[in-house]
From TrEMBL:
Organism: Thalassotalea loyana
Gene3D superfamilies for this protein: YbaK/aminoacyl-tRNA synthetase-associated domain
Superkingdom of the source species: Bacteria
Protein name as catalogued: YbaK/aminoacyl-tRNA synthetase-associated domain-containing protein
Location of the YbaK/aminoacyl-tRNA synthetase-associated domain: 24-144
Family annotation (Pfam families): tRNA_edit
Cited SUPFAM superfamilies: YbaK/ProRS associated domain
Length: 159
């Protein structure tokens, strides 16, 4: 179980308490939730967006939700599109491919988070590898997101 260096430093700097939840290797955030035996809606995933001007934005939403670009664009008053994972690999060098922690400020990326995450008592986040999640209290998660904009911009996808 490895926590990405930048994430670990950022959490320590902000005095964020967390519990490491190990699990068998996973392929995505839903798989991580299932293997760690935690509620899928309590796992926050990161989706990287880019404006037509090249500015990056991290959207943080529940793992079982799908982002609505029209709502993001309305909230952010911009024109953002999804960025493919292989195009952002260089931004998260201390993370395994596809295991991006949803803490953009640790990587100098602005953040917007979905209000659904504000309703939870705990939030689980990727640690930067495919074998561990970090369990954060709602208080610590909201503190990490205090500079972020937030709104309702995703919808639950049923599996």
């Amino acid at each position: 179980m490895t926590i990405a260096n930048r994430l670990n430093s950022f959490l320590n700097q902000h005095n964020v308490q967390y519990e490491v939840i190990g699990h068998r290797p996973s392929h995505n955030s839903i798989d991580s939730a299932m293997r760690a035996e935690v509620p899928v809606n309590q796992v926050a995933k990161a989706v990287i967006l880019e404006s037509h001007e090249g500015r990056k934005l991290m959207a943080v939403l529940p793992a079982n939700n799908k982002i609505s670009l029209s709502r993001i664009n309305s909230k952010m008053m911009g024109e953002y599109h999804l960025v493919k994972e292989n195009e952002i690999r260089h931004m998260f060098k201390d993370c395994e491919f596809g295991a991006i922690p949803p803490v953009g400020y640790a990587y100098n990326v602005n953040v917007v988070f979905d209000d659904k995450l504000d309703e939870l008592s705990h939030v689980y986040i990727e640690a930067g590898d495919h074998k561990s999640l970090l369990r954060l209290s709602k208080t610590d998660f909201i503190r990490l997101m205090s500079s972020a904009k937030h709104s309702r911009f995703s919808d639950e996808v049923y599996h």
